Amino acid sequence: MKNAIEIYDINKSYKNKPALKNINLHVEPGEIFGLIGPDGAGKTTLIRILTTLLLADSGTAIVNGSDIVKDYKQIRATVGYMPGRFSLYQDLTVEENMNLFAKIFGTSIAENYSLVADIYSQIEPFKDRQAGQLSGGMKQKLALSCALIHKPDVLFLDEPTTGVDPVSRKELWDMLKKLKNEGITVFVSTAYMDEATLCDRVALIQDGVLLSVDSVDGIIDSFKKKLISVKSDDIYRLIGDLRKLDFVEKAYPFGDCVHTILLDTNEDEATIMSALETLKHNNLSAKQVIPTVEDCFIDLMENHNG
Ligand code: ADP
Predict the structure, then answer these.
(1) Which atom of ligand 1 is nearest to the CA of 84?
(2) Which of 12, 16, 21, 45 to mutate to test the pocket of ligand 1 (most atoms within 8 A of CB)?
(3) pLDDT in tens, the chain (306 residues)
(4) 83 lines ligand 1 (CB under 6 A)
(5) Of the residues 182, 201, 220, which one is the last residue of a structural domain?
(6) Is 297 inside any structural domain?
(7) Which atom of ligand 1 is nearest to the CA of 46?
(8) Distance separating alpha carbons of residues 4 and 27, to the nearest angstrom
(9) I need a labelling partner for 205 at 20 to 30 A (CA). Which of 125, 242, 281, 302 fits?
């Protein structure tokens, strides 16, 4: 089957400072694809290029079968875009915003109501309220409803869960799963590494470079090093002590533990315990753990920097 999105060698700089470097990527139809990386990684830039709001310096991309430059009108008609910052008309009411977006796309709220019913029904009781007067979670629901009103084939969401409460966050991801079941391709960016597990595949991005594109299982399987989770009552001193050991590649705080990547897979938690023995750590423990996406990201990131 044809890909929903194909990206070939996209580059983009702002005043000679590169924001995207040679991006190559494809997204299959009907998948939830996550673009995951910290602030400033280039996520918004890539989404704005794919939604035809920004021109790349070089490279091409095909979205839903159309070229992002030549066929930009076609793309605007068949994709939905929920920007990171609230972009609706603050002084129009909820219903007026919905009607406006529906009209722009030549449809009506009634025509695609079933697609947005789950989410729009929650804000419908406030349909006469100005959008600017809604709570954060409700604004987000209205923005998503507006992005879906023309039943797009591909939906782009730029950091939809940033600064959103945990309940609204879960509701949003449940909604994305439903949209996937309706056959809509979802391209979503996030800085939250834990959201990677909710995507079919992800691209890890840092400083405009794709570090890895794979399923979460695939990314974790490619981590071939030994990762030891170490704990003691004094985490700060523990990090310093671990970093001094010559068989430790990296040690960084991870929740209430220190995740420690070993240079040599022959070493293990026992080697760490004996190396730290004389340093009088209270409640010292060490155990090997399976890496999370965040561990993989840290590893890939530092290899890229180095
Ligand atoms: P993200 O969405 O991952 O936070 P962005 O795409 O917004 O990343 O930004 C990527 C890089 O490009 C950052 O270094 C950012 O400061 C820079 N940048 C983004 N937009 C502009 C702009 N309009 N002018 C200059 N630099 C920009």
Answers:
(1) 2
(2) 45
(3) 589 999 999 999 999 999 999 999 999 999 999 999 999 999 999 999 999 999 999 999 999 999 999 999 999 999 999 998 767 889 999 999 999 989 888 888 898 888 889 889 989 999 999 999 998 888 888 999 999 999 999 999 999 988 888 888 898 999 999 999 999 999 999 999 999 999 999 999 999 999 999 999 999 999 999 999 999 999 999 999 999 999 999 999 999 999 999 997 788 999 999 999 889 899 999 999 999 999 999 999 866 654
(4) no
(5) 220
(6) no
(7) 6
(8) 6
(9) 242
Answer yes or no: do 149 and 278 share one domain.
no
**Structural domain count, the chain:** 2
Residues 207 and 253 in one domain: no
Indicate if 243 and 200 belong to the same structural domain: no
For residues 102 and 216, state if they share a domain.
yes
User: Same structural domain for residues 38 and 157?
Assistant: yes
SS3 at position 191: coil
Take residue 261 and report the two structure tokens written for it: 């990547």
CB burial of 63-101 (b: ≥16 within 10 Å; e: otherwise) equals bbebebeebbeebbbbbbbbbbeeebeeeebbbbbbbeb
Structural domain harbouring 73: 5-220
Is there an atom of ligand 1 within 6 Å of 39 CB?
yes
Q: Positive or negative, the Cα torsion across 206, 11, 64, 161?
A: positive
Q: What is the CATH number of the domain that holds 167?
A: 3.40.50.300
Same domain, 127 and 185: yes
d(CA 53, CA 39): 20
Q: Could you identify the residue written with the tokens 């977006």? A: 101
Are 268 and 172 part of one and the same domain? no
Q: Is residue 66 located within the same domain as residue 159?
A: yes
